[in-house]
Amino acid sequence: MKKNIVMAAGIIAALILFSSGYAVCASPPAAGDVFPALQLPVPSGTGDKSYLGIRGGNTFMIPDVKAKVVLIEVLSMYCPFCQREAPHVNEVFALIEKNPDLRNRIKVIGIGAGNSLYETQVYREKYGVPFPVIPDGDYMFHKVLGEVRTPYFIGINNDGGIPRVFFSKLGGFQNPAEFLDQIVRESGL
Amino acid sequence: MIRTCTAAAVIGIIMCALYTGPAFGLSEVYKDNIYTPGNLKPTDSTLTVAVGQRAPDFTLPSVHHGMVSLGQYLGKKNVMISFIPAAWTPVCSDQWPGYNIVQDLFDRYDAVLLGISVDNIPTLFAWTNQMGTLWFPVLSDFWPHGKTAAAYGVLRSNGTAERAIFIIDKKGVIRSIDIHDINVRPPLESIIKELEKLNR
């Protein structure tokens, strides 16, 4: 009898978790959510790998990134808004890198929704994007992230434990310094 | 039990990732103004031209470049024609803005791009304004409706065009045809690969 109850509870819990995993299709990650366990392809460039602090393997997950905070921009080479916003995002990256208190504590990663590796390379070259942009040609990661419109920014606390979203926002920002201040403030760095 | 639950959550995420509905990473620049037609029949027309044939000439009004003819590029430029199905729809809206940042690649292969849609000029004006300033002419094949699309055999049964790419050399000969699945954007590298072949 007891065994049957445990089994039934297990099945119900599994169904709930299955639904919650599937439900991430419907909405972008919100502040407080656990960031989905995406298996991202390791970038081929040594500079990108070194920036992320990843040594080997074919894939990596957010907890593998050597930083307390990870800022993800979901973008697309084909997105006019992302194209216009690219200099602002580059400026955020530059502000992080020249601040000794933030450098190595915040890392920026782009995810190219619907973009092949070639297309992410074209985008990076065109706009001088200094951070890694992960290709997502078949929208696999984009679907898990709620099929957000682009650009979309997700801030993740990545301090050793479970990566948790603290910031989730559609669209661009006018002032890179203010945006970075907001990220720092809301992350609790 | 914990193992079962963890596996269930992971399977849920995998199922989500493998969900095969229409996928597009729509730009926020269009806000809520994009009409989503759902998953469409991948192709719905019969091609009337072939690689190696002379491309049918056309003269169409453009949004910012006056009347544009294919013939005006004869002996001067290679031409890529990009037919898109309709303005204000998901995949189309995130196709030409990508071409807009690679004019240097088109220049490298001495090629121009002509974007063609069966929408009328005012619609194309409003739609392409969201994309920034496009360097290439956007032509309206609105009236007689879809005449040019029909001449190439890419007019669908509902009056929209296929998502199709034709690459035409300086002699006016079709060198490459891609009638793409209407639900999917052709990858840029496949276009560039075909442009590269023009110089061989």
Outline the structure in words.
The complex is a heterodimer of chains A (189) and B (200). Chain A contains six helices and seven strands, in the order αβαββαβαβαββα. Chain A has helices spanning 2-23, 46-52, 80-97, 117-127, 140-144, 176-187; strands at 40-41, 59-60, 69-75, 106-113, 133-136, 152-157, 164-170. Chain A has a five-stranded mixed beta sheet. A two-stranded antiparallel ribbon of chain A has the order 1-2. In chain A, α3 packs across α6 (176-187). Chain A is globular and about 35 Å long. The model of chain B has no long low-confidence stretch (mean pLDDT 91). Chain B has helices spanning 2-18, 90-93, 96-99, 103-108, 121-129, 147-152, 188-198; strands at 59-61, 67-69, 78-83, 111-117, 138-140, 163-168, 174-180. Chain B contains seven helices and seven strands. Chain B has one domain: Glutaredoxin (3-Layer(aba) Sandwich), CATH 3.40.30.
Notable traits:
heterodimer, A: 189 residues, alpha/beta, Glutaredoxin, five-stranded mixed sheet, two-stranded antiparallel sheet, 6 helices, B: 200 residues, 7 helices, 18% strand, globular
- As for the number of domains of chain B, it is 1
Q: Mean of the pLDDT scores of chain B?
A: 91
Extended strand count of chain B: 7
Shape of chain B: globular
Briefly summarize what is shown.
The complex is a heterodimer of chains A (189) and B (200). By secondary structure, chain A is an alpha/beta fold.
Topology:
The complex is a heterodimer of chains A (189) and B (200).
Chain A: H1 2-23, E1 40-41, H2 46-52, E2 59-60, E3 69-75, H3 80-97, E4 106-113, H4 117-127, E5 133-136, H5 140-144, E6 152-157, E7 164-170, H6 176-187
Parallel strand pairs in A: 3-4, 4-5
Antiparallel strand pairs in A: 1-2, 3-6, 6-7
Helix pairs in contact in A: 3-6
Chain B: H1 2-18, E1 59-61, E2 67-69, E3 78-83, H2 90-93, H3 96-99, H4 103-108, E4 111-117, H5 121-129, E5 138-140, H6 147-152, E6 163-168, E7 174-180, H7 188-198
Parallel strand pairs in B: 3-4, 4-5
Antiparallel strand pairs in B: 1-2, 3-6, 6-7
